[in-house]
């Protein structure tokens, strides 16, 4: 995974209030109770703040897993550079 992954993992853990034993790298939307629609919006906001990026509506809807989030953040950062 990219260099985004370790920091993004921390954001997932904090935003979704996850235990240390959760396999964040393989986490998918609605796999756990905390990642419901409300948790999703909190997660999106936390990612945007941490990485200084902004997702459009389609990206918010399409963010279905940790791996997808890594790809999205990496792509947005490349566009901002």
TrEMBL record:
Q: Which SUPFAM superfamilies match?
A: ACP-like
The Carrier domain extends over 2-77
Supply the Gene3D superfamilies for this chain: ACP-like (1.10.1200.10)
Q: Where are the transmembrane segments?
A: none
The UniProt entry, under PROSITE patterns, shows: CARRIER
Q: What is this protein called?
A: Acyl carrier protein
- Species of origin reads Amycolatopsis melonis
Species lineage, top-down?
Bacteria, Bacillati, Actinomycetota, Actinomycetes, Pseudonocardiales
């Amino acid at each position: 995974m990219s260099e985004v992954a370790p920091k993004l993992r921390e954001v997932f853990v904090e935003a979704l209030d996850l235990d240390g034993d959760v396999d964040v790298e393989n986490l998918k939307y609605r796999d756990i109770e905390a990642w419901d629609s409300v948790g999703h919006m909190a997660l999106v906001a936390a990612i945007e703040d941490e990485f200084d990026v902004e997702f459009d509506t389609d990206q918010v809807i399409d963010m279905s897993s940790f791996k997808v989030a890594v790809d999205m953040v990496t792509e947005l950062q490349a566009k901002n550079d």
